[in-house]
Amino acid sequence: MLSKYMAAALFASALIATPALAQTPKPALSAQSASSAGLWQGSKLIGTNVYNDQNEKIGSIKELMVDKNGNVDSAVIGVGGFLGVGERDVAVKFGDLKWSNEPVKSNGSTTGAGTTNTAPTKSSSGPRTYPDHAIYNASKDQLNAMPQFDYNK
Fold it and tell me: Closest by alpha carbon to 118, among 49, 31, 42, 40?
């Protein structure tokens, strides 16, 4: 008989202690914080053209390197080459990139084919969740002189 009362007491204390052991759930994102306001789609940053301060295209973003905490550390830019042939990858600090939502303005220069060196204009019906292009303060020669990025390090 004593064991029956002891089992009941243990069961009751387990019920009382359960709420204290339960983890408080994390609150769900509010509609405001769950919206894309102020956020960019990472997948849309891949392929974004990169220009220098003189509005010359110096490459495009090939990859975003993320640290173990989930912060974007660097952007890998494909530079040099022609139509992807002879292109090499260099890494720059993500924080060193500036972003623009406006299309690149023509600097009046023309390429060897006689066409103006400008970025294509993108249009959309709603608010964009990615920038038009990135700006990095370096010339093509400076980027070509940077070491090749090694994905295995």
Answer: 49
* Architecture of the domain spanning 40-145: Roll (2.30)
Any long-range contacts for 1-6 (C-beta under 8 Å, 24+ apart)?
none
Q: Looking at the DSSP assignment, which residues form a beta bridge with residue 82? A: 85
Contact 72, 66 (CB under 8 A): yes
Residues 119, 57: contact at Cβ < 8 Å?
A: yes
pLDDT value at residue 113: 40
For residue 61, what are its two tokens? Answer: 């973003």
Instruction: Name the CA dihedral angle for 81, 97, 44, 31, rounded to a multiple of 10 degrees.
Output: 180
Q: Which pLDDT does position 80 carry in this prediction?
A: 85
Series of mean pLDDT values for 10-residue runs along the chain (153 residues): 61 57 58 63 92 94 95 94 82 96 72 40 62 93 92 86
Tokens 């709420």 belong to 19
Per-state percent for the chain, helix, strand, coil, to nearest 5? 25, 25, 50
